[in-house]
Amino acid sequence: MELDEDLIGQFARMGARIEGQPGAAAPEAFEVMLANGDAIAAWLAVETQWRVVVAPAALIWLGLDYPAVDVVLRRTQFADPDAVFRDLQVMEGSALEVFGEKSG
Q1: DSSP character for 27?
Q2: Could you tell me if 4 and 16 lie in one domain?
Q3: Are residues 26 and 46 in the same domain?
Q4: What angle do CA 41, 42, 46 make, to 5 degrees?
Q5: For the chain, how many structural domains are there in total?
Q6: 1 is in which domain, residue-wise?
Q7: What is the mean pLDDT of residues 73-84?
Q8: What global pTM score does this model have?
Q9: Which three-class secondary structure state does DSSP give residue 74?
């Protein structure tokens, strides 16, 4: 993956600055603040649990399948599963915005 203005802007909106210029290779790894570790772990654990409608010319992303998310949160020993769920909802909302931009 190459860096482009959009990717650099996404990092900037999250308060992160990435080294490099557009066209350079994107970083293979990045740091996650310890306070966000559970949310990231949960996000990766539910990354296949999206509800999607297949339309003739597009995919319509509806959001995460909350019963499946609940199973992940119950089976994974997070210190505060309610806080992790709220974090997932924030990430879900941002992802849906991006998905909407790409399908519109």
Answers
A1: P
A2: yes
A3: no
A4: 120
A5: 2
A6: 1-31
A7: 91
A8: 0.70
A9: helix
